[in-house]
Amino acid sequence: MYGGDKSFTVSSVSYAKAEGASLCSQQTLVLMRRKALRRRVWFTDLSRMERALVNLTVRCVDWVRSSTLGAMLRTIVERVEVALRSRVERLTVEIGWPLARKFASFASSWGNLNAMTWASDAEFARYLAVIHIDDAGGT
């Protein structure tokens, strides 16, 4: 999965593989925390326990060597990354893509030969998400 490399990147957090344990650097956790604080995600989307886990990890270790702690930090980082996405990006994934597939299926069943390309059109999915935002009154 990792090839011959000793390190790999999942989104904005760098991990390294050594002796079977995944390692997470202190610097990448600090950058993630700083970005989450600036975008007001840190306190709204993470529990007190999750924030404490990241804060203690940053204070106490340079590299996470425990696979258990690494897995916990990975889930926290993934939650923060989802929360940091823009509203349009989130709604495109949650609403735009399913609507695009549904519309493509309907149009295809009605005989439109090009309709199935709509299901993989990113701009169409984004358009449907923005229309949903407008219809929902900003929700």
Kindly summarize this structure in a few lines.
By secondary structure, this protein is mostly helical. It is about 60% helix and about 10% strand.
For the biggest β-sheet, the strand order reads 1-2-3
Number of helices: 6
Q: What is the structural class? A: mainly alpha
Report the β-strand fraction as a percent range: 5-15%
SSE order in H/E notation? EEEHHHHHH
What is the CA–CA distance across the termini? Answer: 40 Å
Largest sheet: 3 strands, antiparallel
Counted up, domains total 2
The number of distinct β-strands equals: 3
Folded structure, characterized:
- By secondary structure, the chain is mainly alpha-helical.
- The protein folds into 2 domains: 78 residues, no CATH class; 49 residues, no CATH class.
- The chain is 61% helix and 10% strand.
- Strands 1-2-3 form a 3-stranded antiparallel β-sheet.
- A hairpin with a 2-residue loop joins strand 1 and strand 2.
- Helix 1 crosses helix 3.
- The protein is elongated and about 60 Å long.
- It starts with 6 loop residues before the first strand and ends with a helix.
- The N terminus is likely disordered.
